[in-house]
Specification:
Mean pLDDT: 94
CATH architecture: Up-down Bundle
Number of domains: 1
Order of helices and strands: HHHH
Largest sheet: none
Shape: elongated
Distance between the termini: 23 Å
Structural class: mainly alpha
Radius of gyration: 15 Å
Strand content: under 5%
Number of strands: 0
CATH class: Mainly Alpha
CATH topology: de novo design (two linked rop proteins)
Low-confidence stretches: none
CATH superfamily: 23S rRNA-intervening sequence
Length: 117
């Protein structure tokens, strides 16, 4: 089950963290940067869950790549938040941890796919 995947759990933790830090952003960013970063961060565990629930390895890998793309989007938006002075802390160690696990999941899924073909 996807709920048992460490990468899924860490992606959810990152979601909670991003939601907490964006609660205090300027009201002018509610429909801009806040909405964008929240959509991107929610996309990560959502795509991991959807990928893990798909029937074929090819579809699984596709959704894991989408999750990885969303992670890159979140990292970019967090960097922008730092440069704009909205946040002081980087979540770099958290995002890198998710990135490593997601890459491992992609690699292992590809290996299982090649073993079955």
């Amino acid at each position: 089950m996807y709920q048992n995947l460490k990468v899924y759990q860490l992606a959810l933790d990152l979601c909670v963290e991003v939601y907490k830090i964006t609660e205090h952003f300027p009201a002018s960013e509610t429909f801009g940067l806040v909405a964008q970063i929240r959509r991107a961060v929610v996309s990560m565990p959502s795509n991991i869950a959807e990928g893990a629930s798909r029937g074929s390895f090819r579809e699984q890998v596709r959704f894991y790549y989408i999750a990885r793309g969303s992670l890159a989007e979140v990292e970019t938006q967090l960097e922008l938040c730092i440069r704009l002075g909205f946040i002081k802390c980087r979540l770099h160690s958290r995002t890198q941890q998710v990135y490593k696990l997601l890459n491992a999941l992609i690699k292992s899924t590809k290996l299982r796919f090649s073993a079955n073909n």
